[in-house]
């Protein structure tokens, strides 16, 4: 009987034998066996160490100190890494003082230990710092004292490791720098009041890592002119790629800028930090390929907080504005101007990639649109820079530089309150032309964004000649759109119908059946179905839209089940109820059928 089965109890003497056998097997020549044994030792150690297994830590420390037994060092480090991740606040204060000297010896001895072992030792240090940080709220004095005692030797080694430039996209070449970045992040986040001078000592080497890694990132990731197929995963399943390394750098810089003491230390270098941040935000060759193939992915990555240097860079720029206010805005505007100027120089020199830096400058400014609009009101001349950047794009080939044109549309939409009406009207006309033309999908995405924002603010007297064409083009796009792009087109259609006023009613017989079909096909998607209903509301179908909204509500399954789609030969869709008609059904039939 499985329910009543009681597993046999292992005697104390048998436990001693099992624990001893496990320890003596940690230096097995097979890496997978070492990992399995390490996991078993760590699991037992969580329960038995130190009371019932006092010899565990001395044995592991002795094993990692035996330089002649490389497998033993690996097995012990793997076991310690697993053990340090899961120990509670009663064990960590006992573990760290005994463990740190051995770990430090490995980290500081490149002539005795290979880099992979030094990286593992740094990983254990990171786990210990993280655990001490989580304890600092309750045991503040004890954890700070413990951390302070290790700080000087750690910072010294961190500086030495970070002083080595990043020269390759291969993770093996910068794995130690990655672990140092993680350690520093935990230090600053969990112990923000540690002596400023000690932490400041590592900022210079950190900057060198940042700058040297950009050169590699630019060649191997942005331009893809070098082999960058070096994405791997560490033993914990975390991604090991140059992109993840740069994102870790951005997270650390964001934390440093957010620390009031350290922010003062780096204040003199904020312009350079903003410049490199914008440079890192250039569209990569992989993004170009992916977004060119899939417009839905482009829209999704633009709208969502994705795991990328572009998003991480925007978070850092936001933190710079928060921490430095006017000085931060000055730094970012100047950095954007420098990047824009460099892009023009690259263009004149015949570089095929000149547009990337131009687009990154616009992207950076667009991510700070709210702050910069307020800055313009406070006396900053944001307008001239923006207008110069967007007008410089006019005349460049839309097929050659689709992402640059898409970004220009987006930026004009975000800054429509700043940019002159003449430029806004020009971009509105360009957007109307783009959605009706054979242009790359990203350009149509940008054009839709511009139309959605600019149409409500446009000069209505100039609309009669354009609005019907815009509505017709959007209806055509609606038939082609799916997923993310469908949501965008519906949103743009709402704006166009609202701006068209009475003219929109003349095209209603064509639009309504198509919108109803979209609603029926995507009723399970609350965002798209509600967007479709709102379009119908703008067209005047208030009674029908009420019933369609009811059918979209998750707990209204009976309403939803009563709707049936009927596709007639002309491709028009109507809806009806299978149940007995009531007043609301008659209203819905009269306006939709």
TrEMBL record:
**One cellular-component annotation, GO:** nuclear envelope
Q: Which UniProt keywords apply?
A: Protein transport, Transport
* GO biological process assignments: protein import into nucleus
Name recorded for this polypeptide: Importin-9 central HEAT repeats domain-containing protein
Q: Which SUPFAM superfamilies does UniProt cross-reference here? A: ARM repeat
Q: Does the keyword Transport apply?
A: yes
Domain named Importin-9 central HEAT repeats is located at 270-499
Query: Which PANTHER family does this chain map to?
Result: IMPORTIN-7, 8, 11 (PTHR10997), IMPORTIN-9 (PTHR10997:SF9)
């Amino acid at each position: 009987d499985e329910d009543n089965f009681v597993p046999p109890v292992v005697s104390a003497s048998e436990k001693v034998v099992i624990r001893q056998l496990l320890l003596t097997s940690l230096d097995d020549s097979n890496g997978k066996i070492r990992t399995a044994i390490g996991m078993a030792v760590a699991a037992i150690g969580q329960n038995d160490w130190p009371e019932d297994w006092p010899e565990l830590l001395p044995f592991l420390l002795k094993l990692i100190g035996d330089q002649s037994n490389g497998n033993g060092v690996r097995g012990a480090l793997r076991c310690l890494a697993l053990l340090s991740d899961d120990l509670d606040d009663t064990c960590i204060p006992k573990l760290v003082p005994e463990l740190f000297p051995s770990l430090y010896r490995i980290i500081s001895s490149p002539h005795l230990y290979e880099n992979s072992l030094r990286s593992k030792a740094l990983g254990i240090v990171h786990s210990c710092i993280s655990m001490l940080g989580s304890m600092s709220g309750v045991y503040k004095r004890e954890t700070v004292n413990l951390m302070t005692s290790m700080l000087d030797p750690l910072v010294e080694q961190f500086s030495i490791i970070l002083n080595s430039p990043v020269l390759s996209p291969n993770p093996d070449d910068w794995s130690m720098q990655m672990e140092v970045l993680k350690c520093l992040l935990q230090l600053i986040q969990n112990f923000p009041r540690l002596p400023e001078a000690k932490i400041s000592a590592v900022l210079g080497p950190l900057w060198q890592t940042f700058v040297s890694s950009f050169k590699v990132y630019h060649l191997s990731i942005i331009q893809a002119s070098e082999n960058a197929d070096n994405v791997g995963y560490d033993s914990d399943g975390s991604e090991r790629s140059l992109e993840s390394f740069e994102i870790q750098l951005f997270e650390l810089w964001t934390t440093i800028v957010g620390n009031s003491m350290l922010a003062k230390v780096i204040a003199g270098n904020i312009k350079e930090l903003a410049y490199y941040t914008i440079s890192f935000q250039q569209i990569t060759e992989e993004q170009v390929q992916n977004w060119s193939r899939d417009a839905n992915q482009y829209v999704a990555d633009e709208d969502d907080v994705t795991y990328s240097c572009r998003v991480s860079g925007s978070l850092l720029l936001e933190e710079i504005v928060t921490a430095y206010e006017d000085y931060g805005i000055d730094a970012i505007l100047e950095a954007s101007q420098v990047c824009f100027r460099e892009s023009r120089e690259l263009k004149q020199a015949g570089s095929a990639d000149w547009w990337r830096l131009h687009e990154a400058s616009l992207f950076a400014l667009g991510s700070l649109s709210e702050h910069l609009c307020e800055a313009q009101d406070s006396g900053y001349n944001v307008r001239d820079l923006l207008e110069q950047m967007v007008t410089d794009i006019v005349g460049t080939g839309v097929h050659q530089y689709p992402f640059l044109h898409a970004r220009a549309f987006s930026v004009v939409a975000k800054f429509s309150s700043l940019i002159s009406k003449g430029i806004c009207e020009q971009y509105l006309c360009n957007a109307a032309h783009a959605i009706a033309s054979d242009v790359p999908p990203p350009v149509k995405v940008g054009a839709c964004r511009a139309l959605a924002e600019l149409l409500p603010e446009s000069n209505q007297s100039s609309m009669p000649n354009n609005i019907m064409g815009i509505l017709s083009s959007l209806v055509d796009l609606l038939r082609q759109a799916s997923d993310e792009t469908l949501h965008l087109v519906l949103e743009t259609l709402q704006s166009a119908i609202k701006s068209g006023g009475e003219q929109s009613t003349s095209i209603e017989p064509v639009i309504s059946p198509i919108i109803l079909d979209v609603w029926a096909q995507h009723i399970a998607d609350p965002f798209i179905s509600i967007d479709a209903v709102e379009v119908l509301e703008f067209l005047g179908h208030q009674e029908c839209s009420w019933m369609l909204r009811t059918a979209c509500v998750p707990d209204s399954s009976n309403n939803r089940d009563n709707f049936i789609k009927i596709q007639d030969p002309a491709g028009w869709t109507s809806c009806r109820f299978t149940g007995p008609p009531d007043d609301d059904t008659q209203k819905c039939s009269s306006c939709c059928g």
